[in-house]
Amino acid sequence: MSRAVHEETDDTIPHAVRERLARAVVDVDEVEVALGDTVVRAAPGAPERAAAHEREAPELPPVPAALRPRHRIRVGGDEPVELDRPVLIGRRPRPGRVPSGVPPRLVSVASVEGGISSTHLELREQGAVVVATDMRTLNGSEVMVPGSPVQALQRGASVVVTPGTRIDLGEGVVVEVLGPARPVPRAGGRV
Which of 34, 88, 112, 189 has CB 3.0 to 4.6 Å from 93, enough for a Cys bridge? Predict the structure, then answer.
């Protein structure tokens, strides 16, 4: 396939354009549905409005994932742990037999009664959200999202959690999901 033909058929939307489209206000008169697909057509005068909007707010490049602040978790009264890689929590947590990607951080908790599984819970940051996954435990966990009723996290299930969420593994072991750490200002008031 020649390069010219490929460029005509390539429908990839660059990240900067995708973000700009996500923030755009769409007038209902500009939308039509064709064969189940939503198509947005520019209204008369739309290029002028878009140009004026771009002059008002300069487009900033997206922050690379490596530089973006990460969510954190706190297990009991311990120091917060950054979710820069998956975290496995349990009596004696172990990574899976088949390695995949970055090795997880292992966090051990006490379980006198044996109610907490050896590898009980996985927490990982996926994009801008945190996902909690039960590692096929017998007892499960209770998830308390602020403003919502307590939810049982069943065997093998996953749930998206927000900062402020508390996950009770049992035996008084509670994992709290924290937002990204705020930058500490240096001398002179700069971050």
Answer: 88
Contact 191, 156 (CB under 8 A): no
Q: Are strands 87-90 and 105-108 parallel, antiparallel or unpaired?
A: parallel
d(CA 27, CA 43): 8
Of all helices (H) and strands (E), which one includes residue 40? strand 37-40
| Alpha-carbon gap, residue 46 to 104, rounded angstroms | 49
pLDDT over 80 (residue 32): no
Burial-class residue 115 by CB neighbours within 10 Å (0-12, 13-18, 19+).
Answer: middle
Q: What is the pLDDT of residue 91?
A: 95
Domains delineated in the chain:
3-56 (no CATH), 72-178 (2.60.200.20)
